[in-house]
Write a structure and sequence with these properties.
Number of domains of chain A: 3
Radius of gyration of chain A: 30 Å
CATH superfamily of the largest domain in chain A: Bira Bifunctional Protein, Domain 2
CATH class of the largest domain in chain A: Alpha Beta
Largest interface: A-B, 114 and 114 residues
Strand content of chain A: 15-25%
CATH topology of the largest domain in chain A: BirA Bifunctional Protein, domain 2
Distance between the termini of chain A: 58 Å
Strand order of the largest sheet of chain A: 6-9-10-22-21-20-17-11
Helix content of chain A: 25-40%
Oligomer: homodimer
Number of strands of chain A: 23
CATH architecture of the largest domain in chain A: 2-Layer Sandwich
Structural class of chain A: alpha+beta
Number of helices of chain A: 15
Shape of chain A: globular
Chain lengths: 580, 580
């Protein structure tokens, strides 16, 4: 063993001991005849002291050289309180230069001003920065904690195929031409959905998998070509039983990884409540400014815009931003209006409160009574700003929810070291597709409608709710799932409602429906986005900070981003040809 | 919760308790007015008793129906000693039929006579067989044990990209056309080799990953389109230190998963010793019949075949099969001769021992002194059979090793419940390719040659040994690895020896060689084949028994085997066209 102890672990208790250390040169400086080197390994940094006998050898050493030293641990005269090892130093007696290093194109430190492009091109150096190492170590701590929980609950990890048939997840599949079956293609999995349901039919009862999933979509800041999903499925459990387990898993995770006690059960909001109060099906409840319904105040409004909404049974809702009116310039108001429009609103009413009245361009359309009612309903105080959207219920909620999030961010209300979990439940089973002029499955076609809503399948699809649920953390969807249909007839009915012909059903899902005939248990589960959990817990903004070798649309990453041109012979073997 | 206890866990201590159970009907039989049902879940089977009040309801129940029952636990009058729950039964008071089941196309039992094709087509039912569930549970127990060891040794699990550039592993890559970069292709990884070395350059020091790896090769009984590799890499450790850790991991694994104490350190054979003694670089040392060198006995042989071999500095080797001569018919001898030829031998000499002499068609070419020497050297006894091959050293070893394995199997010497580990070390660095008339890397081009053999790089490549090692279990290669080159100059030299031009080096490995310039630590590791470990420990012959949804060249598996025809529009988007 080249080392007897890791650099970051040296403490006063080691004074007087002989040690061997290895690591990278983080800093070198001369002080008279002495040379000081900070030697870094993954555990931290330790100060080495070389006396003049090493002056020839240390001359050549530069940052990021790899060293192996022997020496003795001494107490430092001038302790460095910023460093865990700051009370000691190692007086070197033997030095071996294991490897040299060119000047690195980015500085190996937590803070970096390197461009994203440079970081990607030299990812192996970017990952040498201690903060990046900590993030990937935290990601590992997260998987360990989750696995540990699931193992203790007798879940079985089972790997499912990477090369299979297309599954009906909605996004585009990555295709893989088959050499053995010319002209045919495998698909990379978008999720193990069908397999995990088959495993329940097989009687495994509790399954999990840390599964790589693929979607052939454009790269975005928070979207990679592939992602890691913590995929969980159970048999014989109710929705609440599944959720309770997942809460236990999260409580344990937060304690072990972040040292934070969180309380279970988490708040549960129905989809409708979440939209009504937060204008989002993934509410960020770290801050207030909730949406408030004010439709009834304007039942007899003379304001044309409100009149129309009332007539078409739409909604009028407001958010109040306290102490925000002053400084809300015309320019800022325009920006918020544009933001609301970008999120689907036709317009945005902005009013400023003083002691008793409201000001703003829409004030003239409001009666004094309406203003009075607003003051009471919204508990307005002087200098409050009021943002009002009126439209269909969904559009009003969505636009105002987006605005709430935007202002919450701007006001710094989304504290990265605060962690707020909740469940959104009772999602609608179907959503109307304007484009296709028919109902589509909100979640996926295997989701179980709520038992009490089954009669509605024949009368009003818009009102059917599903046993579907999402777990939300800080406004991000951490995961989502549902109970699945285990009744063959009901599954067929749902397929029919979704407009699949018998032939389509047979072609696409024939084997799957067949499987349901041989004793299918009630089952359900959910899937977590691991990358996202890791991002939030490591208090980063970028999913790329918690993936060792991410893809980046703009950067020139030689390892993972740019695919390769392929030997024409290989394409010939695959029976494919590149067009244009 | 539908159940209060799992079926397989019911014992005498539960007598008198009220319980709720769920599961599948494994067997139903009538006994007078009573109906008995064996209810199965993943933990086992429990006997239910229904009195006549249920006779109407139980009439419809058939095998594999899913039931939910309430009842009370009673002691059985006629205990079933074959069943863990055989001392108790549950007298049912409430019955809910959760789901029905058609007659299954294969019997849900450990023993099955179903064809491979049927098992694959109805894999979800094949997996319902308790023995298959146990195998997949064992696979999970294996990964848990290995992860646990690695976590406690401060290894960090890091995921590496699935869509990347081709890596130089030798086999064919699966190609994935890129939608974003028309005409270009990603490759699915054959191993995370380059990434894990980059992670060492990044300073992670100890990395592991349960990595899916892909090779676009024909399916075989023990080869899938993809496999799972336990990929491990370390910095600053010696070959022996790495091996010692892996031994600790295996000792723990065997204890936890099989309840077996194995001894470390494992035997270490050099490649040369392994070939000399077992005629294989993955020796099965559960049985003897080792190869014995008898070249010197025939220095002055008058047997033409041996003479030629002696002259060309080849090897003559023998294996002795005790008590095997009787019954070794002419027909069997021909079969062994053919087997030896199939494995590269020009012929096979078979001799039978009696008290003092040998018989066989080659006896007449041997002198009495030679026979005497054979008797002494090989410690022959009456009724021993002697098999001799003479050829170049490698061909002699290989053919005789194959024969040894074959006879060992036939004699039942490869006991599935015996587990024998060993290391094969000191592999050659290069092997001569007859086809390409040049030296190739035995392991891969990043393998470190032994320090003492570096001068041989300029004089005799055939003699250069590498810091490369395989871990063997029962004649299977469980895993293999090496120390890697961490010196830029040496890496370039190896590339040159392998005949790569400067341009090829730059194109293929430019970024990789660049990375080595920024402070690369000494590093090395290895990779285990998880599927194979699971197969051997579950005492199965087929890799498909430990993969939930395997591919099968011959079977019609609707989920995973046959890829799909693709919508021509999708191909157009990918800028590819199917030829012919």
């Amino acid at each position: 063993m080249l080392r007897t102890i890791e650099n970051g672990k040296l403490r006063l208790e080691h004074v007087g001991q002989s040690v061997e250390l290895v690591g990278w040169v983080a800093k070198k400086r001369n002080f008279g005849q002495l040379v000081f080197i900070d030697l870094r390994d993954r555990t931290g940094i330790c100060q080495l002291v070389f006396d003049e006998s090493f002056s020839e050898k240390t001359k050549s050493i530069r940052n990021e050289y790899v060293l192996h030293v022997k020496g003795s641990v001494h107490q430092r005269k001038d302790a460095n309180p910023d460093l865990a090892t700051g009370e000691v130093e190692v007086l070197v007696t033997e030095l071996e230069i294991i490897n040299s290093a060119k000047t690195t194109p980015l500085i190996i430190a937590d803070e970096t001003d390197a461009l994203e492009d440079t970081r990607m091109q030299y990812r192996y150096l970017d990952l040498r920065r201690p903060i990046m190492q900590k993030r990937l170590m935290m990601r590992h701590a997260i998987t360990r904690s989750m696995r540990d929980y699931l193992d203790h609950q007798d879940f079985i990890e089972i790997e499912t195929p990477m090369l299979g048939k297309s599954t009906p997840e909605g996004a585009r599949d990555y295709l893989v031409p088959s050499r053995v079956h010319p002209g045919q293609f495998y698909a990379l999995p978008q999720s193990p959905q069908l397999y995990k349901q088959l495993l329940m039919i097989s009687g495994f009862e509790r399954y999990y998998q840390f599964a790589r999933c693929f979607r052939d979509e454009d790269l975005r800041a928070d979207r990679q070509t592939d992602f890691t999903q913590v995929d969980i499925e159970t048999s014989f459990l109710s929705e609440v039983e599944i959720q309770t387990m997942m809460e236990e898993m999260m409580v344990k995770l937060m304690k072990e990884v972040k040292g934070i006690d969180i309380q279970a059960p988490f708040p549960r909001l129905t989809y409708e409540q979440a939209m009504n109060r937060f204008g989002s099906d993934k509410p960020d409840n770290r801050f207030g400014m909730e949406l408030q319904d004010i439709t009834d105040i304007f039942t007899n409004s003379s304001f044309k815009v409100f009149q129309n909404v009332i007539e078409s049974k739409g909604s009028i809702k407001a958010i109040v931003v306290p102490d925000f009116a002053q400084g809300l310039s015309r320019k800022k108001q325009d920006a918020y209006t544009n933001y609301a429009k970008k999120n689907g609103a036709k317009g945005l009413v902005i009013l400023k409160a003083d002691e008793k009245d409201l000001t703003g361009s829409a004030r003239k359309f409001l009666s004094d009574e309406e203003v009075q009612n607003l003051f009471e309903r919204l508990e307005l105080k002087a200098n409050d700003a009021v943002f009002i959207v009126s439209d269909t219920w969904l559009k009003t909620c969505t636009a105002l929810g987006a605005l709430r999030n935007q202002i919450g961010s701007q006001l710094g209300l989304k504290k990265k070291n605060e962690f707020s979990f909740l469940w959104v439940i009772d999602f609608p089973m179907f959503e109307w597709s304007e484009e296709e002029q028919r109902y589509q499955a909100c979640h996926h076609p295997f989701t179980q409608p709520k038992a009490e809503d089954i009669p509605l399948l024949d009368t009003d699809l818009s009102k059917v709710k599903a046993n579907a649920y999402d777990i939300i953390l800080n406004g991000y969807e951490l995961g989502g799932g549902s109970l699945r249909i285990h009744d063959n007839q009901l599954q067929k009915k749902i397929f029919e409602i979704l407009g699949l012909s018998d032939e389509e059903i047979r072609n696409k899902f024939g084997f799957f429906i067949d499987a349901f005939q041989y004793g299918t248990p009630p089952h359900g589960g959910l899937a977590f986005g691991l990358d996202r959990i890791a991002m939030i817990l490591s208090e980063s903004d970028s999913i790329r900070d918690v993936i060792a070798f991410p893809k980046n649309a703009s950067a020139s990453d030689p390892m993972s981003k740019a695919p390769s041109n392929v030997d024409p012979k290989q394409l010939e073997e695959l029976h494919i040809e590149i067009t244009k």
